[in-house]
Amino acid sequence: MGRVIGAVVLLACIVSASAHAGSFVWRVAGTENTVYLAGSMHLLPERAYPLPQAYEDAYADSGLLVVEADQDRLQADAVRQTMLAAAHYREGGLVDHLDAPMLARTREVLDRTGLSIDRMNAYRPWFVSMAIEVQAYQAQGFRPDLGLDGYFHDRAVRDDKPILPLQTIAAHLAVFTDMPATLSRDQLAVTLDNADELDTSPEQIYRYWQSGDIAGFAQSVNEQADAYPALYDRLIFDRNTQWLATITAVLNSPDNAMVLVGAAHLVGPRGLVALLQSKGYRVERMD
């Protein structure tokens, strides 16, 4: 999975911001530097490039790239095997761990997306959810190799810019691999709840991101965040709190930096933008 980890479920959350068009990049004034908070899309179509100018400006003005996790290590075979092993049930399969209505709906959605219960039965619900959504995105021409994480990581390597991960690989994987069974089923439930929109949601979410339509972004996921608060705490809000110390340290360093995280981590009353504002930092959205 590598760069796909967390790709779709981390794209949006509740937001409180003006509705005018802009970018998913914010400028934060540090003690002696500037830190750019940039919202990532983990899968993108070819037409996403060239990127909105705010991303290019933020990268060009930064001497450090901060990312969720080490992209090179995420691509390692050992990491992929660790994730797949954790995704496998030790005993039984989906047919043994889902109730009858949820299993029937899962069969239907898997068949519709070109997967099958026979192929996915050995995997836990969180992994099945991810497989369904990634399959839907890829069917619409969205590719993980075109995601912003890998794009800017590779540029930073070529440009000899240092890269700082916000999480260890173990912590990054554990968000999913150590997920309690109830939350794992909740993650699949979110996907099933939105299954009728799988053919259209990738393009719609892309438009929200590309045009900087934060209000539209929020409207697409408000109900899920309200319906599954514990899941969203685990996927988004708890990690925001954990990352804040590192981002604050970067704000107190002399060098400008670009912090690239899933767009959902930046917005809303518990997003990184609001958290930094609450600490007294001046944050402004870039056009």
TrEMBL record:
Keyword Signal: yes
InterPro entries: TraB/PrgY/GumN_fam, YbaP-like
Keywords: Signal
Domain of life: Bacteria
Signal peptide positions on this chain: 1-21
CDD domains in UniProt: Tiki
PANTHER family in alphabetical order: CYTOPLASMIC PROTEIN (PTHR40590:SF1), CYTOPLASMIC PROTEIN-RELATED (PTHR40590)
Protein name: TraB/GumN family protein
Native source species: Salinisphaera aquimarina
